[in-house]
Design goal:
With 82 residues, this protein is an all-alpha fold. The chain has one domain. 95% of the residues lie in helices and 0% in strands. The chain contains two helices and no strands. The radius of gyration is 34 Å and the shape is rod-shaped. The chain starts with a helix and ends with a helix. The relative contact order is 0.04.
Length: 82
């Protein structure tokens, strides 16, 4: 009886190993595609944030130029006197 059971165990072990290999490959591909999607999403967000930063830097430069303008200072001094 044990002699008949050994080939069945060998087939079960081989089938288990093949099934586990296919499952690991499937999981790896899923994780890899998910990582690619996250990477692309982060790149898009990075580009958008860089554009927003450049826009805000431009606005700050305009504000700095108007605040350091001599006419602005004179206007502020005149308004503070009244």
């Amino acid at each position: 009886m044990i002699d008949a059971f050994i080939p069945v165990m060998i087939v079960a072990i081989v089938f288990s190993f093949v099934s586990f290999s296919v499952y690991i490959k499937y999981c790896t591909e899923g994780l890899r595609s998910g990582a690619d999607q996250i990477h692309n999403s982060l790149q898009d967000e990075n580009i958008a944030l860089k554009a927003k930063t450049l826009e805000l830097e431009g606005r700050i430069q305009v504000l700095e130029s108007s605040v350091t303008n001599k006419n602005f200072r004179l206007d502020e001094e005149i308004n503070s006197l009244s």
